[in-house]
Design goal:
- This protein is an alpha+beta fold.
- It is 57% helix and 14% strand.
- It is built from 5 helices and 4 strands.
- A 4-stranded antiparallel beta sheet has the order 1-2-3-4, with helices on one face.
- Helix 2 packs antiparallel against helix 5.
- The protein starts with 8 loop residues before the first helix and ends in a 9-residue tail after the last strand.
Length: 218
């Protein structure tokens, strides 16, 4: 049986405030519980996924080592067949005789220079510093200084050095050309990570890349 409770205005206001505080506390506890559940699910999922990814990574590393090992003899034979006295090639491509499969093995290269590179840079700068006499020459100076700028690791970009060589041919100044030559002779690239790329012919006879990383997989 329902009972009617009579309240004064003050009592009603206190009761409404109590209900609001209670609802607020319940919502806070619910959010806390949901957050705890969410964090627990994250822990479970990450702990489940990491071992799977580690396994895939280890398998890829093993396959990569095996592929380079299997092709080692072919690379040696290639040098003999092609009469190559030195091997400065950074990558090698092999295609099946029917033209349906292709694989490329190579090594990424990091730009690196011997200490003498600074002598070449100083020589070029000593020449161009006296050129900025008008708008045209200032533009040339700015361009050369940009080509001489180093990356975060303190190295010049090989592509910019090639542009410098083109500039040297246009300027035709002995001092500038000597500086560029010193820089180019100081180039001492460092081998970085090895890579493997593979393709198969598609239905339309186009080369279709075989994804070899999680990023590339659809």
């Amino acid at each position: 049986m329902e009972q009617t409770v009579k309240m004064s205005a003050d009592e009603l206001a206190q009761f409404e405030a109590f209900k609001k505080a209670q609802a607020k506390q319940q919502a806070k506890e619910k959010r806390k519980k949901n957050l705890e559940t969410f964090n627990a699910m994250i822990d479970d999922q990450v702990r489940t996924t990491i071992p799977e990814l580690e396994s895939i990574s280890e398998q890829l590393a093993m396959v990569k080592d095996a592929v380079f090992g299997n092709f080692k003899s072919l690379l040696e034979m290639k040098k003999d067949v092609m009469k190559m006295t030195t091997d400065n090639q950074r990558s090698h491509t092999f295609t099946t005789s029917d033209g349906k499969m292709r694989i490329e093995l190579g090594c990424y290269i990091l730009d690196n220079y011997k200490d003498t590179v600074q002598d070449g840079i100083d020589l070029i700068k000593s020449y161009i510093n006296g050129l900025a006499k008008d708008t045209d020459t200032q533009a040339l100076v700015d361009m050369v200084l940009k080509l001489l700028s180093k990356d975060q690791k303190g190295n010049l970009k090989a592509s910019r050095v090639l542009q410098l060589r083109n500039v040297a041919e246009q300027i035709n100044n002995d001092k500038f050309s000597e500086g560029v030559e010193i820089i180019m002779n100081a180039y001492d690239p460092l081998p970085s990570k090895q890579f493997i790329r593979a393709w198969k012919r598609g239905n339309n006879n186009e080369w279709v890349s075989i994804p070899l990383s999680i990023t590339d997989v659809n």
